[in-house]
Design a protein that fits this description.
mainly beta; 5 strands; 93 residues; single chain; elongated; 0% helix; five-stranded antiparallel β-sheet
């Protein structure tokens, strides 16, 4: 996965940053989660786009909402594309 933490932030929040990412997985027969013997469909690829915003609450903690758009989940074309919402909380020791 390629990611890009960017210095774009909300005015007045210099320590926050925006996260953008993209990933592509080529799922050939040897890389498939579902072996070909169990599925008549040959797996192709899976791709996702990700965006998040890391909010530094204090010097030692942060919260990070995240959204992902997954295209062709599992690479089989039988599962609809998915929107995934997430949330992280971190403590820096």
């Amino acid at each position: 996965m390629e990611g890009l933490p960017t210095p774009v932030s909300i005015p007045g929040r210099r320590n926050d940053f925006t996260i953008l990412g993209c990933a592509y997985g080529d799922l050939g027969p040897s890389n498939a989660v579902v072996p070909q013997s169990k599925s008549a469909i040959n797996p192709t690829y899976e791709m996702l786009y990700e965006a998040g915003y890391r909010i530094n609450v204090t010097k030692y903690s942060y919260i990070q909402p995240d959204v992902m758009w997954i295209i062709n989940p599992a690479g089989l074309g039988t599962i609809p594309n998915a929107l995934v919402l997430g949330f992280q909380v971190g403590i820096i020791l």
